[in-house]
Design a protein that fits this description.
The structure is a single chain. It is globular and about 55 Å long. About 45% of the residues lie in helices and about 15% in strands. The chain has twelve helices and nine strands. The chain folds into two domains: about 140 residues, Rossmann fold; about 160 residues, Rossmann fold, CATH 3.40.50.1370. Bound molecules: phosphoric acid mono(formamide)ester and norvaline.
Length: about 325
């Protein structure tokens, strides 16, 4: 399915980047996610029937890297909406046993949508170009759009209006930062990044995020000192220093990022209202301390839960009749 931005409907579209959506579409997704969350909590506490708008629909999940949250929230989400998900890992290494194009040509005949987790972003772009069904990016080295949607939804729950809120990302200028910068810029936030030299973001993403910020009144800020970056922030956000696929650089990255740990002192520097966020998986004692993760300012577990509700909203919008 080719990707085109429209405000009419998400039905049949791809989600490869958060920038494939408009601010209005994100707001609609958030409203639907909030309703689904209320419904899910009611079901858990008092039981009862819930709507199954995706009855009979199937999602193929092509995962070429490990996952806890993305896998389980997509599978559970499809199931809760009345549909079914099929998890495919080493059976289908796109470009090895079969070409990306041939994988797409088969899956589009069997299922209604694909979520793919790959290394290179180009693989999901090609998959989407070749498949006539929606393709969702479940993480590439360039972006993690479902994560950023859940994160900004979590901030909206916490703070209400997002415009002018400050998200300070401390660490690697990676896939998670890229999606947060694009979405934050689109929604009018100030998104700060504190990262060491040589670990900055992709300049093309920064360029696009800068355009989005110019249109929304948002702002992008770049620092090399974490304490300066977090001062007055609403959210202090971090992610692993070494992303999946970069394991050979682990030692070098540990040295480079040693000053970029989110600990109690950094949260103190941020100010009394700041909360801590992390996309997970966390490396306790490296990029974040247990004291912050498990402390009163952490909204990390809400953030993780919200992957489920936001992705259910996305699936319902992409696939419902
Ligand atoms: N945050 C996230 O995407 O987690 P997983 O890698 O476990 O899916
Ligand atoms: N930046 C991390 C995110 C994991 C959810 C990675 O790509 O491994």
């Amino acid at each position: 399915m080719s990707t085109s931005v429209s405000t009419a409907t998400l039905r049949g579209r791809d989600l490869l980047s958060v920038a494939d959506l408009s601010a209005d579409e994100v707001e609609r997704l958030f409203e639907r996610a909030a309703a689904l969350k209320t419904e899910d909590h009611a079901r858990r506490t008092s039981g009862g029937l819930v709507a199954t708008p995706l009855a009979g629909r199937t999602l193929a999940m092509l995962f070429q890297k490990p996952s806890l949250r993305t896998r389980v929230t997509f599978e559970a989400g499809m199931n809760q909406l009345g549909g079914h998900a099929i998890y495919l890992t080493e059976d289908v290494v796109m470009g090895a046993r079969e070409s990306v194009r041939d994988v797409a040509r088969n899956l589009e005949r069997f299922v209604d949508a694909i979520v793919a987790r790959t290394g290179p972003h180009e693989v999901v772009v090609e998959l989407a170009a070749q498949a006539s069904i929606p393709v969702i990016n479940g993480l590439t080295l360039r972006e993690h759009p479902c994560q950023a949607l859940a994160d900004l939804f979590t901030m909206r729950e916490r703070f209400g209006d997002l415009r002018g809120r400050v998200l300070a990302f401390v660490g690697d200028g990676n896939n998670v930062y890229h999606s947060l910068a694009l979405l934050g810029a689109m929604l009018g936030l100030e998104v700060r990044l504190a990262t060491p030299d040589d670990y900055g973001p992709n300049p093309r993403i920064v360029e696009r995020a800068t355009e989005l910020a110019a249109a929304s009144g948002g702002r992008l800020v770049f620092e090399t000192d974490p304490t300066t970056a977090v001062r007055g922030a609403d959210v202090v956000y971090t992610d692993a220093w070494t992303s999946m696929g970069q394991e050979a650089e682990t030692e070098a990255r540990r040295d480079a990022f040693a000053r970029f740990r989110v600990d109690d002192a950094l949260m103190e520097a941020a100010g009394p209202g700041a909360v801590a966020m992390h996309c997970l998986p966390a490396h306790r004692g490296e990029e974040i301390t247990s004291s912050v993760m498990d402390g009163p300012r952490s909204i990390i577990w809400d953030q993780s839960e919200n992957r489920l509700h936001v992705q259910k909203a996305l699936l319902a919008e992409l696939l419902a009749a």
